[in-house]
Amino acid sequence: MRPTLATVSLLALALAACKPVSLTAPEGAARTDAKAAPAASAKPEASAADDNLNAVLWMQRSEEYKASAETVYRAAADRLEAALKEKNWDALVPEERDNAGQTAGLKPAVIMDVDETVLDNSPYQARLVAGGQEYDEVTWDRWVAEKRARAVPGVVDFAKAAQARGVTILYLSNRAVHLKDATLANLREVGMPVAGDDVFLGLGTFVKDCEQNGSEKNCRRRLAGQQYRVLMQFGDQLGDFVQVVANTPDDRAKLLAQYHDWFGERWWMLPNPTYGGWEPALFNNAWDQPRAARREAKREALDLRN
């Protein structure tokens, strides 16, 4: 979720979608799902402090990150059989399923976010850090076009185990629909099952009788639920599982408390310290502020236990 990152320019109206003010950023620190950073290679004259340095290094260089991701996917694989056998098992909240109680004949599926859930875009984030830059749509699109993202540890084994049990993998991503071909090619390259072009539900996917709120995914989850019995959802942002109506720290905490029991059963959260909706929530979602002002707001949010 962001990745989800002044507010990022709205996606073309032709896509009928944009990143919501609550979860988006102008440049790239806190996207919901369209995640990654520019292809900057030039080294700044001085190595200025960057909030993302340790976060990106942790994802790229630590064994702890790999172990965390693999733990999530192995635990989910262990729960898959129970989900298949339980006829009432459903990973969509009731408000996002139009056919509640009528899912018995539907094919089983799992919904997976793409960025930092299936594909690791840390090289893009690393380029941003190295170049002293922030996310923007142009550099992000260029990165996606490279089709060089690697798989998040553990995801391919899980996906293949699900596929072997007749479960369809749906990729519900905030990558815009015009990035579909490059995204599916990258997914195939890393070994992920891709049943067809229709398994990609990108930002801008049309959903009849559902008004999309920015980059929120609720409409596309409803669309998935019309065709599939959704056994599990995977993501790295709260918005990958349920609609985030108000992106404030208090409301995000309430959402987690409300659906606490779903995590580790139906919902599976991947670690991503590099960006997400949690970040703009700390500075009132005001991406139009200077970078220094956003940083100061984040420093003020630190818990010093004084």
Cα separation of the termini: 32 Å
Count of helix runs: 10
Element order: H for helix, E for strand: HHEEHHEHEHEHEHEHH
Contiguous low-pLDDT stretches (5 residues minimum) are 1-39
Please name the fourth-level CATH homologous superfamily: HAD superfamily/HAD-like
**Measured on Cα atoms, how large is the radius of gyration?**
18 Å
CATH fold label: Rossmann fold
| CATH-level-2 architecture | 3-Layer(aba) Sandwich
User: Rough shape?
Assistant: globular
Quaternary structure: single chain
For the largest beta sheet, what order do the strands appear in spatially? 5-4-1-6-7
Helix-strand makeup class: alpha/beta
Question: How large is the share of residues in beta strands?
Answer: 5-15%
CATH classification, class level? Alpha Beta
The share of residues in helices is 25-40%
How many E-type strands?
7
Q: Residue-averaged pLDDT, rounded?
A: 88
Count of distinct structural domains: 1
Quick structural summary:
The protein has 306 residues and is of the alpha/beta class. Helix content is 35%, strand content 11%.
Structural account:
There is one protein chain. This protein has a single domain, classed as Rossmann fold, CATH 3.40.50.1000. The chain has helices spanning 53-61, 63-85, 122-131, 137-146, 155-164, 180-189, 218-227, 249-258, 278-281, 291-300; strands spanning 107-112, 119-120, 150-151, 168-176, 200-203, 228-235, 267-269. The strands form 2 sheets. A 5-stranded parallel sheet has the order 5-4-1-6-7, sandwiched between helices. 35% of the residues lie in helices and 11% in strands. The radius of gyration is 18 Å and the shape is globular. Helix 1 crosses helix 2 (63-85), helix 1 packs antiparallel against helix 3 (122-131) and helix 2 runs parallel beside helix 5. Mean pLDDT is 88; it is low at 1-39. It has 306 residues and is of the alpha/beta class.
